[in-house]
Amino acid sequence: MDVAHCHLEGNADAVEFCPHESYRHVLAASTYTLQEGDQPSRAGSISLFSVDADTVRLDLCHRIETAGIFDVKWNPVGDCSDPLLAVADADGCLRVHSLRCSSDEENGLSLREIADEKITSSMCLFLDWNPSATAASVGLSDGSLSIVSIAESQLETQEIWKAHDFEVWTTCFDIHQPQLVYTGSDDCKFKCWDLRDGPSKLAFQNSKVHTMGVTCIAKDPNDPNIMLTGSYDEYLRVWDVRSISKPVNETSTCLGGGVWRIKYHPFVSGLVLAACMHNGFSIVNITGGKTEVIETYTKHKSLAYGADWHREESFHEGKGNITLVATCSFYDRLLRIWMPESDLKLHQDIVL
Predict the structure, then answer these.
(1) pLDDT tens across 190-221, in order?
(2) Residue 7 to residues 38, 47, 181, 329, 347: CA-CA distances in angstroms?
(3) Paired residues of 209 in beta bridges
């Protein structure tokens, strides 16, 4: 069921709901637009929205123009007083913005850049915060991986090394063992690095399973042994980190279109939202290594790139408590807010 939608001012590629308790209604959406010509440039923007599920409203709070953006992530909930939004951009920079209440803005919210770090002469494609929000891993277009420390208003590149042969499309801290960082690349390799033993210490790699580039990685927040990978080869794969030679289910699940993003549900165990590029968006239930597509969303008519779950439930007449979903598509510059038609709680236990 569609709740609301709007068009952004550039090609939409990432959406993220804020996880911090007082700001869970806040949604960040980013854009990347290649302006071709004699002097090509890469422009972008960050738009802040307030999403009211009860009154079915999507209100623009604040927008800033930036370099082209490939990824945005809010910091994990911790001791920080203000939510922080980290941005990986086409200028090779990691930037951190603070979310503030602002009387100057109609809806009372604004972003202010508090720190930036020029990491590379290439492009920053993806980022992930560590669980304590003291560092970020950043995947680069030249195949490198960077670890950047984040303290107050200071960013500092701690380590940078050649991790892959081609673009690093995804990187992921292990939330249960934060000394481990996973990476995936256009070279079809899925790797893990141990940060305790220097930047070049490879903990494991698998180069035989993915037949095309590895585009996304997600660690199960409730099971320390399970993680997922997505690939241009259209498969969602379930892995057990104790035996990384092959996926748990060797047949895996073909979602179609290329699996670009995967997001675990914030409180329904084993439920995953996937952005499938040329095949819309899917909600997938994962139990014991087996995967089942329980719902698809095909209202977008362009590349399905950005996807995230709202981190609060809302009550709707006839449907009970539901979780909203935000999705965006690239060339049609469209942001949509919708609610799943399925009763998601029938598929897994609720994590308290």
Answers:
(1) 999 999 987 779 999 999 999 999 999 999 99
(2) 28, 11, 35, 10, 33
(3) none
Q: Could you tell me where the beta strands, DSSP code E, fall in 180-267? A: 180-185, 190-194, 202-206, 214-219, 226-231, 235-240, 253-254, 261-264
Q: Regarding the domain with residue range 2-220+305-346, which homologous superfamily does it belong to in the CATH classification?
A: YVTN repeat-like/Quinoprotein amine dehydrogenase (2.130.10.10)
Contact 102, 108 (CB under 8 A): yes
Strands 320-329 and 290-297: unpaired
Residue of 157, 258, 228 lying closest to 199 (CA atoms): 157
Sequence letter at residue 344: L
**How confident is the model over 288-316, as pLDDT tens digits?**
778 899 999 999 999 999 999 998 876 56
pTM: 0.93
Residue 270 · residue 286 · CB < 8 Å? yes
Question: Measuring CA to CA, how many Å separate 326 from each of 17, 99, 168, 169, 321?
Answer: 8, 19, 25, 21, 17
CA distances for 232 relative to 184, 210, 257, 277, angstroms: 11, 9, 8, 9
Hey, where are the domains in the chain?
A: 2-220+305-346
> CA 319, 325, 331, 333 torsion: positive or negative?
positive
| Separation CA 172–CA 166 (nearest Å) | 17
Q: What is the DSSP letter of 268?
A: B
